[in-house]
Amino acid sequence: MSASPSDPSSASPRVLHMPGNRAQPPGRNSVWTSWRNSIITVVLAGLAAFLGAHLGSRRVAPPPVPLSERVYEVLNESMDLTDQQRSAIRSIGARYTPEREKLRMQSRALNVQIARLMAEEQTFGPKTSAAIDELQLVMGERLKLSLQYMLEVREVLTPEQREFFDRRVAEEASMSR
């Protein structure tokens, strides 16, 4: 069966003879179009990568929350606490929260003071040194308070729960900075 030139099914698939259609057979222009599209794709991908890296680097991760402030969350997510244990742990937390907040605010204020003093003294001067010593005392008090809190919470737990809690504390300590 031979196709006649007037038969529309015999038209070359490379060239469409429709009005307004400017498709061309493969050749020099299609190579240029292919290269142009590749270059545009590479430029757009590079631009997207640059913007993603730039915007991603500007995003600040929230500071990690110390375990002592997440004890209830850690215990509740992995342990079956009784209502009595939950109540006792909440009560312990409520007693420690005011002092913890006071020490946290002192730490922040001392950090600001240290930055100001270093700018003022332009060296590691006596005022800066005294402020750092004071900050170390406050941080030591925060650590003691956290340990007392965790030890008190630990007393509310069963021996099996204590074992789990101790393991989680050790894991968290090994991952902290």
Structure commentary:
The protein is an all-alpha fold and 177 residues long. It has two domains: 25-60; 67-175, Up-down Bundle (Four Helix Bundle (Hemerythrin (Met), subunit A)). It is 71% helix and 0% strand. It has five helices and no strands. The chain has helices spanning 28-58, 71-78, 83-121, 126-156, 159-175. The chain is flat. The protein starts with 27 loop residues before the first helix and ends with a helix. The model has no long low-confidence stretch (mean pLDDT 79).
How many H/I helical runs?
5
Task: Decide which structural class fits the backbone.
Answer: mainly alpha
Q: Which H/E pattern describes the elements?
A: HHHHH
Spatial extent as radius of gyration: 34 Å
Sheet-strand content, in percent, reads under 5%
* Strand element count: 0
Largest sheet, if any? Answer: none
**Separation, N- and C-terminal Cα atoms:** 82 Å
Low-confidence stretches: none
Mean pLDDT: 79
Globular, elongated, flat, extended or rod-shaped: what is the shape?
Answer: flat
What is the CATH C level class of the largest domain, in words?
A: Mainly Alpha
CATH topology of the largest domain: Four Helix Bundle (Hemerythrin (Met), subunit A)
Q: How many structural domains can be distinguished in the coordinates? A: 2
Judging by the overall fold, what is the CATH architecture of the largest domain? Up-down Bundle
Helix content: over 70%
